[in-house]
Amino acid sequence: MTASQCHVNTITTTGSYSKAIPSGAWKYATCFLLGLIVTKCTESSFTDVQTLSRMLQSSGKIMLGLQMNTTRFAEELEELSNVDKNANELDETLLAAHTSEESRSAPLAPPLTDPSAFQAIVDTASERVTNDAEYPNLQTSRNYLDVAWWENQPGLSTRGGLNSQDRHLLGLIYRNASSVFEYGLGESTYIANHVGVPRYAGIDSDPLWIAKARDKVAPHFRFYLGDIGATGDWGFPKNPKLEKSIFQYQLSPLIVEPKPFDVYMVDGRWRVPCLLASFLHASARGALPGNVHVLLHDCELPGSTRGRIEYHRANHLLQMVAHSGNKLCVYQRRPETTDQQLQELWHEYRDQIMR
Fold it and tell me: What is the dihedral of CA 102, 104, 106, 107, to 10 degrees?
């Protein structure tokens, strides 16, 4: 018999054992044994067909034995797996019961972080300077402003531009206000102190001007430095394009203030955007529109041919409710004006410093 004939007979003869050989992994074992037979077959010529048949029968028995042993081994593995599974379920049950018992007896540990903790200390500190009833140091006597007397006192009137008419109106408004915020410090700050404003905060871009004002007023007056870089006359920034200026001057002091003010006085830099930011701050802090007045200095009556007509760019959203007759406008927002409109106008003028 030739090698090719032997190979064909080998493959054909194995058919009688195909049912005894399992699928999957056992096919690889079967192929391995048959490969040995085929190798032998190709190495020499068999003259005895019975010898080849005995070899095939032996390989079939081997595979059958392997299948039987492996089946038993798989059954034992499954039994062990079931034992482990039952043990794990018991451990989980005991652990859950133990954890439940501990949770009932031991208090829960506090979380490591609490986002409200910082706000809690901010609220505590701000309450000391905004609660008139709890802190009597804010209860100051209220005085009238005698303009004639005031203008004859050394060191009180300044060259900031207020005249007798402006002082008279400002004194009346400040005396009836429980709280005042000022953009730009100066004579108006001294008037606020004289008439006894209970809650006051103000900002200026000149640290020396802040120090001068602080030394002349009550200790409960609070001041912010608007860091807009180096400044020249009247607190104008030497670098008008400094990115931090808008945030530092227009907004940072109001972000800190937790309550609205009755009166906002705008007499510094970026006057139109500060005018708009004042109304938005009051609204954000819960003030009723009719209870808030924003004063704008160097503001002429509408239609005047002199003065700074650019200060009237928000007049379509605001209504002028009083004027000193000189350069002091008193505004409230119109009933139909929305915060969105104020915000959009702020974006339009936020970069304009304006004298």
Answer: 140
What is the per-residue pLDDT across 175-227, written as a single tens digit (0 to 9) for each? 999 999 999 999 999 999 999 999 999 999 999 989 999 999 999 999 999 99
d(CA 95, CA 97): 5
Residues 48 and 125 both lie in one domain? no
Cβ burial of 254 (10 Å; 0-12, 13-18, 19+) is buried
Residue found by looking up tokens 């058919």 in the block: 15
Q: Which domain holds residue 48?
A: 3-104
Q: Rounded distance, CA 316 to CA 200, Å?
A: 29
Identify whether residues 62 and 133 lie together within a single domain: no
3-state SS class at 296: strand
Contact 196, 142 (CB under 8 A): yes
Residue 50 and residue 80 in contact, taking contact as beta carbons nearer than 8 Å: no
The two structure tokens encoding residue 139: 């209860």
H and E: helices and strands count for the chain? 12, 7
- What's the number of domains the chain is made of? 2
Q: Are 251 and 227 in contact (CB under 8 A)?
A: no
Q: What are the phi and psi torsion angles at 199 (to 5°)?
A: -125, 120
Instruction: Supply the pTM of this predicted model.
Output: 0.67
Per-residue pLDDT of 39-58, as tens digits, reads: 554 554 444 555 555 555 55
